[in-house]
């Protein structure tokens, strides 16, 4: 068996004739039982914990004791190996404050650890492991998973895990102990030297969290590595910049972060003049003297291509700025940005994105990613099935995109049935929900509203759903919920503002409009458009679609992405007046998912023109409001004395004038710029 490719299995043990059969059997056991299983020599994330005894193996499997195996080595040396490992595991427990749940090491040594010799080749692996299996004891199982997390570096925030077993659905999910699977562990710890390493995964497969761990590994590898972490979206970049110091503190990184010297976290574009708006591209321009192209001069793709041309002419004088670059949400970019980053990076560029970039875009690549993450650990499988079905139009007469069986498998599905007429797909259950009765969770709800009927009006329905969430989850807070409006246009910014006022007043909650703040806030309800929700997750997500969904590929992609932001329930609010046929069709498909736990559909008889699948990623990420904000940012920098006038008295009026003068959704940069400057002159700001 290939011990380097299994999702459920990870091993860093050097294979030899003595252990080959045993390790293969362990891997087979992991696959058959869908259990994350690890065979390691020492704790993975702690470089200082190394052992001279080479014949030792540590077997880590949930619901089993930690099994320390002697593969034919000297018995006394093995005893030292076992004691050293136990001592180091105790230190890790203290270091990450796991003691409050695990207790002192002497108490759990005999109950949770075992030492043994490698079994005889005739002994079945099932029989061997049965001896170390923990009885149906949830407390011990929880302790074992915490110990495994210490060994593989999948450290959990112990403050989020109560000493008592969680009781409610919300608390069970929030306190779920996270264990990296085999693919995730390989990405973090496997050494691979390439100019570019690609990671593709579904939403919720933990890409961003893995990138944080990779940043930590690279930063602590030596005291010289220069690392940049970037993404297109400003809100996500701000979130990452806030998260990294907290993550380093949590992971007990002793080195001080040297910002702008060894570590940079920034969004991809940036500004030419604003020192508070440094982006990957603007930093590259500044370092190499490249003429900067802003939003008004063209697309981000064209700016990157011009920068590549400039650097190509001075190739011998390029001194790399970075040793490593990590790019999150790579589906927001075109190839030019990756090539630009490679030109200024001495070692490796890590490119992480959603598998769907190869499905929703026509310019697909036949090359396989270096790491494929298709096990979604955030979202209930039923939510994911529904999100995919809606995204691809699977329940409708006319589909959006036809996938091959290979593509379905890349998305983590098992093809149970495939005929000319029908397809049946399944997903493996999530360990996250093994302690929860599926009947406790209605993970996806379709809510139709009718503004012609007073009782069915949008505002009343929205308040009712939040009341329901609060009633079913007594400990829920405002920051456990996000409201996302999918429709584009300035009137929907007004709608988000109205929702904030209405919901905030009704529940006495603070409200955070992510399209303004670009940052999450504690104890505050998040309201956002599609551009500022990427990379974020919440227990409950309310997704609002007022306009007709139809065959709009961008809308379909946005639906998929938003519905998969939740890790308990996603609510799809949809206007009955504009989507009556759509509601009827997908409601039937959703009911089938809930009853069968399978994605069952009659294959669409036709599909939209595949040329329509080509998405301009810059159009997706840059809205009219983004362009306006960028221009005001430039003006505020160049005219600091006018900043308060612009922000407080002029901006809203000018926004309204833009809507009246040109189309509400227009992103014609030159027209918007002319309107803004002419109106500023009218109010005396030149």
Write the layout of secondary structure elements.
Elements: E1 9-11, H1 20-33, E2 37-40, E3 56-60, E4 66-70, H2 75-95, H3 99-102, H4 105-112, E5 113-117, H5 125-130, H6 138-152, H7 169-174, H8 182-189, E6 196-201, H9 207-221, E7 227-231, H10 234-250, E8 263-267, H11 280-288, H12 300-313, E9 322-327, H13 335-343, E10 345-354, E11 371-373, H14 381-392, E12 398-399, H15 405-410, E13 414-418, E14 422-426, E15 444-449, H16 458-472, E16 481-485, H17 490-507, E17 510-513, H18 514-517, E18 524-529, E19 538-545, H19 553-563, E20 566-575, H20 576-596, E21 599-602, E22 606-607, H21 617-621, H22 624-638, H23 643-661, H24 669-682
Parallel strand pairs: 1-2, 4-5, 6-10, 6-11, 7-8, 7-9, 9-10, 12-22, 15-20, 16-18, 16-19, 17-18, 19-20
Antiparallel strand pairs: 2-3, 3-4, 13-14, 14-21
What would your notes on this structure say?
This protein has 686 residues and is α/β, with parallel strands linked by helices. 42% of the residues lie in helices and 17% in strands. It starts with 8 loop residues before the first strand and ends with a helix. The strands form five sheets. It has a six-stranded parallel β-sheet. It has 24 helices and 22 strands.
The global form is: globular
Strand content: 15-25%
User: Termini distance?
Assistant: 71 Å
Number of strands: 22
As residue ranges, the low-confidence spans are 362-366, 615-621
Task: Provide mean pLDDT, rounded.
Answer: 85
Report strand order across the widest sheet.
Answer: 8-7-9-10-6-11
Helix coverage percent: 40-55%
Q: What is the structural class? A: alpha/beta
Tell me about the largest β-sheet.
6 strands, parallel
The helix tally amounts to 24
């Amino acid at each position: 068996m290939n011990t380097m490719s299994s999702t459920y299995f990870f091993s860093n043990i050097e294979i030899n004739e003595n252990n080959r059969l045993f390790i293969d059997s362990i891997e087979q056991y992991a696959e058959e039982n869908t259990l994350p299983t690890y065979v390691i020599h020492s704790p993975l994330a702690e470089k200082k914990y190394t052992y001279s005894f080479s014949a030792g193996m540590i077997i880590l499997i949930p619901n089993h004791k930690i099994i320390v195996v002697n593969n034919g080595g000297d018995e006394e040396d093995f005893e030292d190996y076992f004691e050293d490992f136990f001592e180091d595991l105790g230190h890790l427990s203290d270091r990450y404050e796991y003691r409050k749940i695990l207790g002192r090491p002497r108490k759990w040594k005999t109950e949770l650890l075992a030492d043994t010799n490698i079994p005889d080749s005739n002994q079945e692996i099932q029989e061997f492991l049965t001896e170390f299996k923990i009885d149906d004891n949830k407390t011990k199982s929880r302790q074992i998973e915490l110990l495994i997390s210490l060994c593989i570096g999948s450290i959990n925030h112990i403050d989020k895990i109560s000493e008592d077993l969680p009781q409610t659905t919300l608390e069970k999910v929030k306190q779920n102990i996270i264990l990296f699977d085999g693919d995730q562990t390989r990405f973090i710890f496997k050494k691979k030297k390439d100019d570019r390493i690609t990671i593709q995964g579904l939403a919720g497969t933990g890409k961003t969290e893995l990138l944080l761990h990779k940043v930590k590994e690279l930063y602590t590898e030596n005291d010289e590595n220069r690392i940049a972490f970037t993404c297109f979206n400003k809100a996500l970049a701000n979130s990452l910049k806030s998260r990294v110091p907290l993550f380093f503190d949590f992971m007990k990184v002793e080195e001080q972060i040297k910002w702008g010297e060894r570590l940079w976290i920034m969004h991809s574009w940036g500004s030419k003049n604003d020192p508070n708006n440094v982006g990957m591209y603007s930093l590259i321009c500044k370092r190499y003297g490249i003429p900067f192209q802003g939003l008004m001069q063209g697309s981000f793709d064209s700016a990157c291509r011009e920068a590549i041309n400039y650097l190509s002419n001075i190739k011998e004088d390029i001194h790399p700025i970075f040793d490593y670059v990590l790019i999150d949400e790579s589906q927001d970019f075109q190839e030019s940005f990756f090539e630009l980053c490679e030109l200024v990076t001495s070692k490796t560029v890590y490119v992480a994105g959603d598998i769907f970039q190869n499905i929703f875009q026509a310019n697909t690549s036949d090359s396989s990613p270096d790491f494929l993450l298709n096990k979604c650990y955030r979202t209930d499988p039923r939510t994911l099935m529904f999100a995919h079905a809606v995204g691809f139009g699977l329940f409708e007469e006319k589909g959006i995109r036809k996938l091959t069986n290979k593509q379905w498998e890349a998305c983590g599905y098992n093809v149970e049935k495939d005929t000319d007429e029908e397809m049946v797909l399944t997903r493996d259950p999530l360990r996250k929900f093994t302690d929860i009765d599926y009947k406790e969770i209605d993970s996806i709800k379709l809510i139709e509203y009718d503004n012609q009927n007073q009782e069915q009006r949008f505002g009343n329905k929205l308040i009712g759903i939040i009341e329901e969430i609060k009633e079913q989850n007594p400990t829920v807070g405002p920051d456990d919920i996000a409201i996302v409006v999918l429709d584009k246009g300035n009137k929907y910014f007004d709608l988000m503002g109205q929702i904030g006022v209405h919901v905030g007043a009704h529940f006495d909650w603070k409200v955070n409009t992510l399209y303004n703040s670009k940052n999450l806030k504690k104890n505050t309800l998040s309201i956002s458009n599609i551009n500022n929700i990427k990379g974020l997750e919440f227990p409950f997500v309310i997704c609002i679609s007022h306009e007709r969904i139809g065959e709009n590929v961008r809308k379909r992609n946005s639906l998929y992405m938003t519905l998969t932001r939740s890790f308990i329930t996603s609510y799809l609010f949809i206007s009955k007046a504009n989507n009556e046929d759509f509601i009827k069709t997908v409601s039937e498909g959703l009911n089938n998912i809930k009853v069968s736990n399978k994605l069952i559909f009659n294959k669409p008889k036709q599909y939209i023109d595949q040329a329509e699948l080509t998405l301009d990623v810059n159009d997706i990420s840059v809205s009219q409001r983004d362009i306006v904000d960028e221009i005001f940012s430039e003006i505020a920098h160049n005219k600091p004395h006018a900043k308060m006038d612009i922000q407080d008295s002029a901006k809203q009026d000018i926004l309204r004038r833009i809507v009246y003068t040109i189309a509400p959704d227009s992103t014609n940069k030159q027209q918007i710029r002319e309107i803004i400057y002419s109106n500023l002159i009218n109010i005396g700001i030149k």
